[in-house]
Design a protein that fits this description.
The complex is a heterodimer of chains A (about 325) and B (about 260).
Chain A (H helix, E strand, L loop, with lengths): L4 E4 L2 E2 L2 E2 L1 H17 L3 E6 L3 H7 L7 E5 L7 H15 L3 E5 L2 H13 L4 E5 L1 E4 L3 E7 L4 E7 L4 E5 L14 E4 L11 E8 L12 E5 L9 H11 L2 E4 L1 H5 L20 E5 L5 H7 L4 E6 L6 H4 L2 E4 L2 H11 L2
Parallel strand pairs in A: 1-4, 1-6, 4-5, 5-12, 6-11, 7-11, 14-15, 14-16, 16-17, 17-18
Antiparallel strand pairs in A: 2-3, 8-9, 9-10
Helix pairs in contact in A: 3-4, 5-9
Chain B lengths: L1 E5 L2 E5 L5 E2 L2 E2 L4 E5 L1 H16 L4 E7 L5 H9 L4 E5 L2 H5 L4 H15 L3 E5 L10 H9 L2 E11 L5 E7 L4 E8 L2 E5 L11 H8 L3 E4 L15 E7 L8 E2 L4 H14 L6
Parallel strand pairs in B: 1-6, 1-8, 6-7, 7-13, 8-12, 9-12
Antiparallel strand pairs in B: 2-5, 3-4, 9-10, 10-11
Classes of the chains: A alpha/beta (about 325), B alpha/beta (about 260).
């Protein structure tokens, strides 16, 4: 066994995804603490082009698997299991992205590696100690892994992206993938959430979450939107309930928005939501729970009941 | 055809709570069916309504208390349930691999064509059990499924996987498979009074490690929780104080100052 780290890059439709550069930072830290090298696996797509971009500070070796055009979990799982056997690293590091959720647990299980997902921090001192969140971000926990080798996925946005050119060696890894025998086939992509309004263009978003409780209460928010000339958006549960169309959803799986002002009403601030709106210039949060995570990123806070605050706010503009 | 739905009773911490050792104090926890699993149950029940001869079986790992939650699945249309628990399971700190081994042993007994599982649980949020279970069983899988279309012969599931940024991946998955279900896939039904009454007479079969042909090695885990704490607030927000009227007036001034609302 080596003290190396094997990290995995992520790309989609010809573009490396931001989380790749964050995983490199996390991997570089871990490799330094373990005294090993950082390997970066790049699987499918334009691997040579990606490898050029990924010649980043601290990356020792880029292992390319030149097969397939896009992510396929059977390819990723198979290639990573073979690559892990070849490199025999201490740590396998993957992004806790949607595609990460689709291959990382399978790879860990197949390799019989203890698996810790969605780490927001970690340290290595003869063993892994990882920090995670529980109960909807209300608490943090540390977990220790008593094993020589382990797999861990890292949450996006927790490590700064790596920049700066390095001196990575590019090593093509020979892996035979039998696409015909694979039990899953990616047949295409679909953009969702078109429609009448592009919330990504709005300067002022009034965004509503679970705190609204009932569909009919949305009328109150519509009144606020009318009074202020804002654009209405929402967090995921409102769209899941069918109360607003998908094109209004802000978040990881919805739209990324960057308005001048983002007024979050009754939104607790789950990490998936924050991923879509943290780029707003000014964030205002209205929530009854003073400990709601949304206040951690807010510039202005109103601790109060939206059913009192919103009518009073409407009055201000009438 | 048989659809196995994995369900979990999850705990939610109250807004105000205290930590007692390595967990939130029991008096601050409320138990409920995991939100993602509610959508998985609905997907299973809809398949049983759309196809002939589909049995929906729900499986959980949990103490006797969790039968209340399992009854919700039965009240919504699952035909019967299996609950895995014994003293050894209770004493273990189950990691993903241990859960996958337990559920795989149940799946070996039940021999399902399809397994539906929530993407993640809203207590520990590992987001891994379904895909690990697929690997354990040698099944195909798809994670974060937000649309599902089953072929007439129950051999292939055409799914949408909800990627980041408003993009969905279209994938065909051969059965037997595990699909991890994202919220929004469907509209979970409320349990009807009739359903709740019927659920009382449906079977919840208790299973021990012994029943499943496993020993305590199956629940051994190298992962241990070593601390739990409330994160320090990172808030540097300016708070608007006073009653709702005062707060609204300060907020309105700020919005006017930013120029996003006219006079």
């Amino acid at each position: 066994m080596s003290s190396d780290v094997l990290a995995v890059a992520e790309h989609r439709r010809g573009e490396l995804r931001d989380v790749t550069f964050e995983v490199v930072t996390a991997g570089r830290e871990l490799a330094a603490e373990m005294g090993g090298d950082l390997h970066l696996a790049v699987i499918a797509g334009d691997v040579d082009g990606f490898a050029e971009t990924l010649n980043l500070d601290g990356v020792d070796t880029i292992d390319t698997v030149d097969d397939g055009a896009e992510f396929n979990h059977d390819l990723y799982a198979g290639a990573l299991e073979a690559l892990f056997a070849e490199i025999d690293p201490t740590a396998l590091l993957m992004p806790n992205s949607v595609n990460g959720l689709d291959y990382a647990p399978a790879v860990a299980n197949a390799l019989e590696l203890p698996y810790v997902s969605d780490a927001i921090d970690f340290a290595y001192d003869g063993g892994l100690e990882a920090t995670r969140e529980m109960y909807g971000s209300k608490v943090e926990t540390t977990v220790t892994v008593d094993a020589e080798q382990f797999a861990v996925t890292v949450r996006g946005g927790e490590w700064a992206p790596t920049e700066g050119t390095g001196e990575a060696a590019v090593e093509p890894f020979d892996y035979e993938f039998d696409a015909d025998a694979a039990g899953s086939r990616v047949t295409g992509f679909e953009e969702v959430g078109g429609g009448d309004v592009d919330i990504a263009d709005a300067d002022f978003l009034v965004s509503i979450g679970r705190g609204i409780e009932e569909e009919e209460n949305l009328d109150l928010i519509r009144d606020l939107v009318d009074a202020t000339g804002a654009t209405l958006s929402s967090s995921r549960p409102i769209v899941d309930n069918g109360w607003l169309p998908k094109n209004r959803q802000v978040g990881q799986s919805g739209k990324q928005v960057t308005p001048d002002v983002y007024l979050a009403i009754g939104i607790s601030g789950a990490v998936q939501h924050v991923a879509g709106m943290k780029g707003a210039e000014t964030i205002v949060a209205v929530n009854t729970d003073p400990n709601a995570p949304i206040f951690d990123i807010a510039d202005y806070g109103v601790v109060g009941d939206l059913f009192d605050v919103v009518p009073a706010l409407i009055e201000q503009f009438e | 055809m048989k659809v196995l739905v994995t369900v979990k009773e999850v705990a939610e911490a109250a807004d105000d709570f205290e930590i007692d050792g390595l967990d939130v104090g029991e008096q601050y926890l409320e138990y409920d069916l995991n939100e993602w699993d509610d959508y998985a149950i609905e997907a299973g029940v809809q398949l049983s309504e759309a196809f002939d001869d589909v049995e929906v079986v729900s499986v959980t790992i949990g103490p006797e208390r969790s039968e209340e939650t399992i009854r919700m699945a039965l009240a919504k249309g699952a035909d019967r349930a299996v609950r895995v628990w014994d003293d050894d399971v209770a004493a273990a700190d189950l990691d993903v691999a241990a859960k996958a081994r337990l559920l795989a042993a149940v799946a070996d007994e039940e021999d399902p064509d399809l397994i539906l599982s929530g993407v993640q649980a809203n207590d520990d949020g590992f987001g891994a059990t379904g895909v690990a279970l697929a690997d354990e069983l040698g099944f195909e899988w798809a994670a974060v499924v937000n649309a599902l279309d089953m072929s007439e012969d129950f051999s292939t599931a055409s799914v949408h996987r909800e990627l980041e940024g408003g993009v969905e991946e279209l994938t065909d998955v051969d059965l037997p498979a595990v699909l991890t279900i994202q919220t929004g896939l469907n509209e979970p039904r409320y349990a009807s009074l009739r359903g709740i009454r019927q659920a009382q007479s449906k079977e919840i079969a208790p299973m021990t490690l012994d029943d499943l042909g496993l020993d305590t090695d199956a629940v051994a885990s190298p992962i241990e929780r070593t601390s739990m704490y409330e994160p320090e607030t990172e808030s540097d927000a300016t708070y608007f104080e006073g009653d709702a009227g005062d707060q609204a007036s300060q907020l309105a001034d700020m919005l006017r100052e930013k120029g996003v609302v006219g006079e």
